[in-house]
Amino acid sequence: MTNQHTENKQLPKLVVILGQTASGKTDWSLYLAKKFDGEIISADSRQIFKKMDIGTAKTLGEWRWDGFKKTYFVGDIAHYLIDFLDPGKYFTSAEFHDQAIKYAKLIARKNKVPFVVGGTGMYIQSFVDNYKMPRVAPNKKLRRSFEEKSIEGLMEWLKQVDPISAEIIDQKNKRRIIRALEVSILSGEPFSSQQKMGEPLFNILQIGIKREKEDLHQNIERRIDEMVEQGIVEEIKSLLKQKYSWDLPSMSGVGYRQFRDHLEGKETLEQALGKLKKETKHFAKKQLTWF
């Protein structure tokens, strides 16, 4: 499935590869980047974190010098916005938008093809549509107070300060609800009114990868079984020992939070894996709403 998002041939060419988790984006991106002399910008909100390789299904590579700076390489293909952020820190869609544009321009200046690859719909949409995103830094104190409240209570508050966001937001995603409230309160303007489409910066070809539901579910189950063999439980234990909290965005994502009850002695490993498989399939279904 392809889509020519912009057709201005004077703009630098760029390819977006998007799709659900476990759909095969990584293999296609490596093949195409090698074939067309490209470099890859990751659009995955979980693979940005260091120390979190197994639960994020990160393609393992290595950091090595590329000119005067270090770059993450998978084989001979340079990757950006992957494996760079401490798990205790935050990274907003606005930051992704700015960083992705910077790296795409850098790649184009080298006469290479930028590939933006991932399954985080908000990241891809902010980049492709060149959204002018809210520039409001995360406020830890405000977020802690929000975390103590129920989703229902937060939604009632959001309906008052930003009814448009309240109408379209994923009402099960507490992190996004909190972000919409945070931006609306701290800026004094509704979050929804601060996301405006900008002028196109690239001539973009979008490639969407879609697998049949049964095939995708088999891939998800196989990937999760492989995570256990690779040591996902040990990876999480190591993160907890380093004082990374379950409440952090990094630790509350799919692939990590599902093991909390198991590690706290409340359920078996088999139950945790069953929960992870079920929630990953649900997550893959939700990704389609973006694509």
From TrEMBL:
<dbReference type="GO" id="GO:0005524">
    <property type="term" value="F:ATP binding"/>
</dbReference>
<dbReference type="InterPro" id="IPR027417">
    <property type="entry name" value="P-loop_NTPase"/>
</dbReference>
<keyword id="KW-0547">Nucleotide-binding</keyword>
<dbReference type="GO" id="GO:0006400">
    <property type="term" value="P:tRNA modification"/>
</dbReference>
<dbReference type="InterPro" id="IPR039657">
    <property type="entry name" value="Dimethylallyltransferase"/>
</dbReference>
<keyword id="KW-0067">ATP-binding</keyword>
<keyword id="KW-0460">Magnesium</keyword>
<comment type="similarity">
    <text>Belongs to the IPP transferase family.</text>
</comment>
<protein>
    <recommendedName>
        <fullName>tRNA dimethylallyltransferase</fullName>
        <ecNumber>2.5.1.75</ecNumber>
    </recommendedName>
</protein>
<keyword id="KW-0808">Transferase</keyword>
<dbReference type="InterPro" id="IPR018022">
    <property type="entry name" value="IPT"/>
</dbReference>
<dbReference type="Pfam" id="PF01715">
    <property type="entry name" value="IPPT"/>
</dbReference>
<comment type="function">
    <text>Catalyzes the transfer of a dimethylallyl group onto the adenine at position 37 in tRNAs that read codons beginning with uridine, leading to the formation of N6-(dimethylallyl)adenosine (i(6)A).</text>
</comment>
<dbReference type="GO" id="GO:0052381">
    <property type="term" value="F:tRNA dimethylallyltransferase activity"/>
</dbReference>
<keyword id="KW-0819">tRNA processing</keyword>
